[in-house]
């Protein structure tokens, strides 16, 4: 019988090889929160470019939290007011066990949610108004207490795409969390987020003290982790990788998790969805190559199309430099503008996940191979690269 591919390009992965350090941090956070039965005062945020598995990491952390008895709430920022999204998720999540105790608080926040006894007609308008902060703080307290009364060890709130949160919502959440730290005992509650590389800038712009959050980089995989990400799913189905085939794919993926999944999936299909006892060979890697090229080209074209004409000129100027890490001053010089004039395009491209900060005054592309795609699209020959 043929076996469906165990690789998941474009999906949330169920395994996160190479992320043990990050998961250990969460495990420590959960252990301290549960044994001391107190608030985890420091917010943890995983940051990095798209395609490196931040969402998969959050979902794995959520599974681990639930496995040891915590209630969890998971939201994705960017779909309306962050606080409204969060409150609705809370109302439909752990607090559904204690609807009567929180219905009034939901009504105070003016949020219409599908919780029996808690539905109202008003619409929440996010902001850092002291009253909103206080009510949100009260609701978070109720979340922790209601969850604990229901027999849960604690409650963990996960927020993905944190950089997409509206400024008032980020500010209100940060202030509410800061206020909870004044009386942390009896509140087994933690907040864990994930976002693009410039998330810290976005969040601290909303609330300067959020610089004290624990921002942890999530990047490409080390070679050993890349090998594991490719070999483990196949081994679980009784299929082996020949060593030279595995090495070639490891080299081609450059440790970028999305590429690992694309290559693995394409090789699996090229091998005819192999049965247990089969092996993936260099011949299968060669047969899969065109499909991989097509998939990556589609990815690059999709990202290119997200950029406006002025942003495409910015990207072309970046790609035209000789080094992968490019000084903002060199981009400005190539475009004939001041570095200050780059601000809006730079921020927009970062919001779209196309570029990231690579050091003081330096920028780089977030996806391996995209620089080469831009250069080819703009017909930048070697003689035009400076």
**Could you tell me the strand content as a percent range?**
5-15%
Name the helicity range.
40-55%
Order of helices and strands: HEHEHHHEHEHEHEHHEHHEHHEEH
Most strands sheet: 5 strands, parallel
Quaternary status = single chain
Provide a count of the helices. Answer: 15
The low-pLDDT segments are 111-127
Give the termini separation: 54 Å
Envelope shape: flat
- Helical/strand content category: alpha/beta
What gyration radius follows from the Cα positions, in whole Å? Answer: 23 Å
Q: Strand order across the biggest sheet?
A: 2-3-4-1-5
Average pLDDT for all residues:
88
Question: Layout of helices and strands, plus pairs?
Answer:
Layout (H helix, E strand, L loop, with lengths): L19 H17 L7 E4 L6 H14 L3 E6 L5 H11 L6 H10 L21 H20 L5 E6 L6 H14 L8 E7 L3 H8 L7 E4 L5 H14 L3 E2 L1 H11 L3 H14 L8 E2 L1 H25 L2 H11 L6 E2 H8 L7 H9 L3 E5 L2 E4 L4 H8 L9
Parallel strand pairs: 1-4, 1-5, 2-3, 3-4, 6-7
Antiparallel strand pairs: 8-10, 9-10
Helix pairs in contact: 1-2, 4-5, 5-6, 6-7, 8-9, 9-10, 9-11, 10-11, 12-13, 12-15
């Amino acid at each position: 019988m043929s076996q469906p591919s165990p690789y998941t390009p474009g999906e949330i992965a169920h395994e996160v090889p190479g992320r043990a350090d990050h998961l250990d941090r969460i495990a420590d956070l959960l252990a301290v929160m549960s044994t001391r039965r107190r608030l985890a005062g420091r917010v943890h945020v995983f940051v990095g470019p798209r395609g490196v598995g931040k969402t998969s990491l959050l979902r794995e952390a959520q599974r681990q939290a639930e496995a040891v008895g915590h209630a969890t709430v998971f939201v994705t920022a960017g779909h309306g007011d962050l606080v409204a999204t969060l409150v609705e998720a809370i109302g439909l999540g752990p607090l559904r066990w204690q609807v009567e105790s929180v219905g009034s608080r939901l009504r105070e926040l003016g949020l219409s949610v599908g919780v029996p006894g808690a539905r109202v007609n008003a619409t929440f308008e996010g902001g850092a108004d002291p009253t909103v902060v206080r009510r949100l703080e009260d609701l978070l307290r109720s979340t922790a207490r209601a969850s604990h009364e229901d027999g849960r060890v604690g409650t963990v709130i996960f927020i993905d795409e944190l950089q997409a949160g509206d400024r008032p919502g980020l500010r209100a959440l940060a202030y509410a969390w800061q206020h909870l730290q004044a009386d942390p005992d009896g509140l087994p509650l933690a907040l864990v987020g994930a976002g693009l590389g410039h998330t810290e800038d976005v969040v601290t712009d909303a609330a300067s003290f959020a610089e004290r959050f624990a921002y942890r980089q999530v990047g490409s995989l080390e070679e050993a982790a890349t090998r594991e990400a490719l070999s483990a799913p196949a081994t679980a189905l009784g299929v082996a990788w020949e060593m030279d085939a595995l090495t070639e794919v490891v080299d081609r993926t450059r440790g970028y998790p999305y590429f690992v999944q694309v290559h693995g999936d394409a090789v699996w299909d090229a091998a005819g969805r192999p049965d247990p006892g089969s092996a993936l060979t260099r011949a299968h890697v060669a047969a899969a190559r065109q499909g991989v090229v097509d998939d990556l080209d589609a990815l690059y074209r999709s990202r290119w199309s997200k950029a406006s004409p002025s942003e495409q000129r910015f990207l072309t100027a970046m790609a035209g430099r000789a080094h992968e890490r490019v000084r903002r001053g060199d981009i400005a010089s190539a475009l004939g503008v001041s570095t200050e004039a780059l601000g809006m395009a730079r921020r927009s491209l970062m919001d779209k996940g196309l570029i990231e900060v690579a050091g003081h005054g330096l920028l780089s592309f977030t996806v391996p191979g995209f620089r080469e795609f831009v250069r080819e699209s703009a017909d930048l020959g070697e003689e035009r690269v400076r």
